[in-house]
Amino acid sequence: MNIIEDILLPLAIIIVGLSYSKWLYKINNGFFRKNVDLFSNSKDLQGWFGALVLIATGLIFLLKGIFNHTF
């Protein structure tokens, strides 16, 4: 078992997902832009979904790595 692969890489993925969602929040002035057409709103949703996938994937692999090292 390698601690870098099991714990540090999922933490890095979580940090990237959180910083990406913070960046999206900053450029959109909130969760969704106002006064834009439907197409650009769907682009915003794709970005938020990507950030959510990064965070969820990091959490899943982090929990898996923690369980590998504890049991």
TrEMBL record:
Keyword Transmembrane: yes
UniProt keyword list: Membrane, Transmembrane, Transmembrane helix
Domain of life: Bacteria
Listed transmembrane segments: 7-25, 45-67
Protein name: Immunity protein 17
Organism for this UniProt entry: Flavobacterium tagetis
